[in-house]
Amino acid sequence: MKYILNGFLIVEGKDDKAYLSSFIEGEIILTNGYDLLCDLPYIKELSKKYTPIILTDSDKAGRDIRNKLNVFIPNAINVEVDINKCNKNNKHGVAECEKDEIINKLKDYLVNNSQNIQKINQLDLINCGVVSKEMREFIAYKFNLGKCNNKTLIHRLSMLEICKDDILKVMEEYNNGN
Q: Residue 31 pairs with which residues in a beta bridge?
């Protein structure tokens, strides 16, 4: 059984995301360590709609990253796990935590049913005229989605519940400007 997240998680690395995704369904954003500025526009946009939950390691790097994120996302919830319950192969991070420890720490943000999010798909983008990298970058810029490949663009548009009509309006602006 997967738990459904009411909000979105911000974690440090790929291992954290992979581990959490095995039992939590929801948006999980990577900071890639200290390289957290690239997705800040998307995180800020997402935090207008969903609760941002910062779940970084309990070490110095994790605290530094958490402190930096709190400056940019003042409404973020900080969740710390017990380092004594996070130990595998002499590592002490989120990816090494006991599943029950994470579920217990996130219990206030886990729900029983999924929200009905309108999903944008590749065909929708094509039908809206988004057929080039330049157009995709324009859409990402206009909706504050950060740097996106096609798959990420579709996911982020869906997460923010941006509909086809909104995309068409932005594409009209793009076509009038070019």
A: none
Q: What digits encode the pLDDT tens for the residues 3-21?
A: 889 899 999 889 999 999 9
CA dist 52 and 6 (Å) reads: 9
> How does DSSP classify residue 88?
B
Beta strands in the chain (DSSP E): 3-11, 24-30, 52-54, 77-78, 110-111
DSSP state of 78: E
87-109 tens-digit pLDDT: 777 777 888 998 888 999 999 99
Per the structure block, which two tokens stand in for 129?
């005229």
CA distances (Å), origin 40, targets 35, 36, 155? 10, 7, 16
Measured on CA atoms in the order 122, 173, 38, 26, is the torsion positive or negative?
Answer: negative
Burial of 146 (0-12, 13-18, 19+ CB in 10 A): buried
pTM confidence score: 0.77
**Residue 78, φ and ψ in degrees, nearest 5:** -100, 125
Residue with tokens 């200290």: 34
Any residues with CB less than 8 A from the CB of 37 and at least 6 apart, and which? Answer: none
What's the CA gap between 37 and 39, in Å, rounded? 6
